[in-house]
From TrEMBL:
The keyword Zinc applies. Residues 1-24 are annotated as: Disordered. This is Probable alcohol dehydrogenase AdhA. It is an enzyme of class 1 (oxidoreductase). It catalyses: a secondary alcohol + NAD(+) = a ketone + NADH + H(+); a primary alcohol + NAD(+) = an aldehyde + NADH + H(+). Its cofactor is Zn(2+). It comes from Streptomyces lydicus. Its EC number is 1.1.1.1. The keyword Iron-sulfur does not apply. InterPro entries: ADH-like_N, ADH_Zn_CS, ADH_Zn_typ-2, ER, GroES-like_sf, NAD(P)-bd_dom_sf. Residues 32-347 form the Enoyl reductase (ER) domain. Transmembrane segments: none annotated.
Length: 350
């Protein structure tokens, strides 16, 4: 990929520079939408942290941004919102973090704190919410800024590549699991089995659920069974028993009626993605009658993140990682688009 030079100053190489990837021209991943960039080292604002990035997970949302499914909110944005880093500098008003601490930057970057949603503990629905790697530069880089109030303290003793996927794939999966209204000991269907699903499945199993995975890839089905799923079949297969709840992780609208039809009476389907292809026409009797529920999942609250990270540590969630050097970010997105990633893709600077 060619580097950007027209709009980006050329910093002195070394510690005063940030290297990474930006979404230059959104389009199919085969068209090369990412471009390499070098930018001056940013100064943290009063309530910001400057992180030296140790690892950054590759989320399907990054792919949607690169391919234009999510319209860019600013030009030449650096994607990435599953960021594990060390605090290199902190603003004057920062409390709770010191230089050298490990911190995590996630998708939810800021909210207004004043609207009725924020006041009710539903900040994920704040109309003024902003997002890392969409509204501001993210973690596909050697260094990045994150707001301290929206960062998570992370343990020192864990591999950064194992922590990174927890910061979006894990948190969003956790919210989707709660939105699915899974009863204790219930029957959960998971459609699609990538980064988020393989973490969510482990949490559901640990909580006593029977988990049935429906996904296109044979390798993903094998991983699901190894992580405790009761069954694993094709994406359009019928699960072996009616479902109390289901989560759709695959961004495929055609699977919505399939999942709804697999629900038992009063079952709930939660759609976890930020982007979904068009949903076909639903038949009321087959898909919605008998009080079946269809729910979306929108971002997360900081409380979701704190609760999930605590639960992940208690359960001992295993994170299956496919590591890539930062220089291979376009390849990581291409592999994600083609379904070639085993577990979660993670970029490693250096």
């Amino acid at each position: 990929m060619a580097g950007l030079t027209a709009d980006v100053p050329s910093p002195v190489p070394g510690r005063d520079a940030v290297s990474g990837w930006a979404v230059h021209r959104p389009g199919p991943i085969t068209s090369g939408p990412l471009a390499s960039v070098r930018r001056p080292l940013p100064e943290p604002g009063p309530r910001e942290l400057l992180l030296d990035v140790e690892a950054c997970g590759v989320c399907r949302t990054d792919l949607h941004l690169a391919e234009g499914d999510l319209p860019p909110r600013r030009p030449e944005t650096v994607p990435g919102h599953e960021i594990v880093g060390r605090v290199a500098a902190a603003g004057d008003a920062v409390t709770g973090f010191r230089v050298g601490d490990r911190a995590g930057g996630a998708w939810l970057r800021s909210t207004c704190g004043m609207c009725r949603y924020c006041r009710a503990g539903r900040e994920n629905l704040c109309p003024a919410s902003r997002y890392t790697g969409w509204d501001a530069d993210g973690g596909f880089a050697t260094r990045t800024l994150v707001p301290a109030d929206y960062a998570y303290p992370l343990p020192d003793g864990q591999d950064a590549t194992q922590l990174a996927p927890l910061l979006c794939a894990g948190i969003i999966g956790y919210r989707a699991l709660r939105r699915s209204a899974l009863p204790p000991g219930g029957r959960l269907g998971i459609y699609g089995f990538g980064a988020s699903a393989h973490l969510t499945a482990q949490l559901a199993v640990a909580e006593g659920a029977r988990v049935h995975v429906l996904t296109r890839g044979a390798q993903a089905r094998e991983l699901a069974l190894g992580l405790g799923a009761s069954s694993a079949g094709g994406a359009y297969d019928r699960p072996p028993e009616p479902l109390d709840s289901a989560i759709l992780f695959a961004p495929v609208g055609d699977l919505v009626p399939v999942a709804l039809e697999a629900l038992d009476r009063s079952g709930t389907l939660a759609v976890a993605g930020i982007h979904l292809t068009d949903i076909p026409a639903l038949n009321y009797q087959r898909h919605l009658f008998q009080e079946r529920n269809l729910r979306s999942v929108t971002s997360n609250t900081r409380a979701d993140g704190t609760e999930f990270l605590r639960a992940a540590a208690q359960v001992g969630i295993q994170v299956t990682v496919s590591p890539y050097q930062l220089s291979r970010a376009p390849e990581a997105l291409a592999d994600l688009a083609a379904g070639r990633v085993h577990g979660a893709a993670v970029l490693i600077p250096g």
